[in-house]
Every structure is written in structure tokens, then in C-alpha cells.
Design goal:
alpha+beta
């Protein structure tokens, strides 16, 4: 994982995008040493979204099963 300050990122944006898109690097942007954002390959983002969707579906199924098991609630 690479780290760049926001000031450095402004100067090297095209390089940073290249590293994420082509080299599949995960990049963290910092300000005053604090991590504030990340630039990740699109495949990583899609994977995370798929995981979130699966978790949402599992939670919805659990809530539906609980509602069916306890109809008076």
C-alpha cells in the first residue's frame, strides 16, 4: 500500500491513478500525517460492494425470518 500526502497527490495525480488502475496498487491519501481517503483499483471497489450487498441480503433475510417467527412484533 502506498501513501501520498494530499499536496503530493495534487502534483502526481496521473501517476497515482496509473498505479491504482494498472499496477493494482492501493493508495492512501494523508493530510498532516492522518489517513483520510483511499484510491483503490476498481476491482477492489466492486468486490467490496458485492460483499456489502451480500451482507445486506443476509441481514434482510434474518429480519424477515424473525418477523415470521414473531408476528406480534
Amino acid at each position: 500500500m502506498l501513501k501520498f500526502s494530499t499536496a503530493e497527490a495534487r502534483e502526481k495525480l496521473s501517476i497515482i491513478i496509473q498505479k491504482a488502475a494498472v499496477d493494482k496498487e492501493r493508495i492512501v491519501l494523508t493530510r498532516r500525517g492522518k489517513e483520510l481517503a483511499a484510491l483503490v483499483p476498481i476491482e477492489d471497489m466492486r468486490f467490496l460492494e458485492e460483499l456489502e450487498d451480500r451482507l445486506d441480503l443476509e441481514e434482510a433475510r434474518a429480519a424477515l425470518a424473525e418477523a415470521k417467527a414473531n408476528p406480534e412484533r
